[in-house]
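note to self: dont lose this again. the chain is below, predicted strucutre after it. 136 aa total, dont forget to put it in the shared folder this time
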Amino acid sequence: MLQEIPRTEAVPEIPQITAREAEAMGRAVIRLFEKWQVSDADAREILGGLAARTYARWKAGELGRIDRDLATRLSLLLGIHKGLRYLFSDPERGYAWVKKSNQAFGGRTPVEVMAHGDIFSLARVRAYLDAERGGW
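---
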């Protein structure tokens, strides 16, 4: 006799990033951009094309609403930072890495790749670092 197997849900319960967590991530990324010495123009592109006034408010500590796309970008950036901390025992070397040309990115710097603006460019840098540290 056949017995039906209980089905798993197509979308499992995955906790969402809370507004408070997103704000903390935003503040951390602003500090990270300072450490990476990323220009405001590049930072705005990396964050999905934020307006100059919006980014100025972010730098002043007024983050406002962070949507899903922006929260995903913040998460990827913090993952990149984490990957660099695993790879480099000296944090300064990790901060400098994002501004050095890399053959894996066609001679471009990781910041240039990330500043392309699309979320896939952030994911590409993150995946590269994960692979370098043996995370795949």
